[in-house]
Amino acid sequence: MTADIRTRIHEIVAEQAMIDVADVTDASVPADLGVDSMGLVEAIFAIEEAFDIHVPFNANAPDARNFDYSTVGSIVAAVERLVAEQRG
């Protein structure tokens, strides 16, 4: 499932950035890919829908207690955690 989560998140970020998914890595910073704050919000909504989860998200305060979106890899890790918690 982890590979599926990573792949889907890379696809969502690429779609928001309007770039090829091959250009997205775990080390990528969304803003460096061209994802602005509105695009990030839209990506979070798409992630919630794709994985049927609720993402605790505050665009003004990224941290571990919230939802770390500093890199694509941190988004993947946070979604993996949320999916695992949901499954119990």
UniProtKB/TrEMBL annotation:
GO terms for molecular function: ligase activity. Keywords: Ligase, Phosphopantetheine, Phosphoprotein. This is D-alanine--poly(Phosphoribitol) ligase subunit 2. It is an enzyme of class 6 (ligase). Pfam families: PP-binding (PF00550). The gene is dltC. InterPro entries: ACP-like_sf, PP-bd_ACP, Ppantetheine_attach_site. Residues 3-83 form the Carrier domain.
